[in-house]
Amino acid sequence: MTTQQELRLKTSESEKITINLGPIDLGQIDLLVQEGFYANRTDLIRTAIRNQLAQHADVVKQTVARKSLVLGMQHYTRQDLEQLQAAGERLRIHVLGLASIANDVSVELALATIESIFVLGALHASAVLKTALAGRIH
After folding, report:
1. Which of 86, 111, 125, 137 has the largest CB neighbor count within 10 A?
2. pLDDT reading at 136 higher than 90
């Protein structure tokens, strides 16, 4: 499987979050589900979140530009980092969405080339890399 195919598969995945709701809110959600407005609780919650994100889309765009964030997916391969190392450059990862570091990136290479990581969303990297880079993840 190519890296591009792996990324497509990973983007279809979702991150799990947990929320706490009061019994009245939860009851109202269940009522809307029961009445057929939504397929299930998750459907209602996803729709509500998407509506809020759409409502604040301009603020998101402005903030992404102001903070120089990559919007979407950014994947870093061993080859990418080796090229940076050869050029004597260091990487500042700033992503709103998904940042991923290939599984074949060694701790030594990551430490030599990644200066900082700031991700709003999800960071996919091996547990070993995340531990090694913990002081650089903000």
Report:
1. 125
2. yes
Q: Which of 115, 137, 83 is closest to 125 using CA atoms? A: 137
Into how many domains does the chain fold?
Answer: 2
DSSP string, 64-92: HHHTTPEEEEEEE-HHHHHHHHHHT--EE
Q: Which two tokens stand for residue 93?
A: 């990862």
The 3-state DSSP composition of the chain as helix, strand, coil percent (nearest 5) reads 55, 20, 25
Q: Which residues contact 130 (CB under 8 A, 6 or more apart)?
A: 123, 137
91-101 and 70-76 strand pairing: parallel
Length of the chain: 138
Residue 104 has a CB neighbour count (10 Å cut-off) of 10
pTM: 0.71
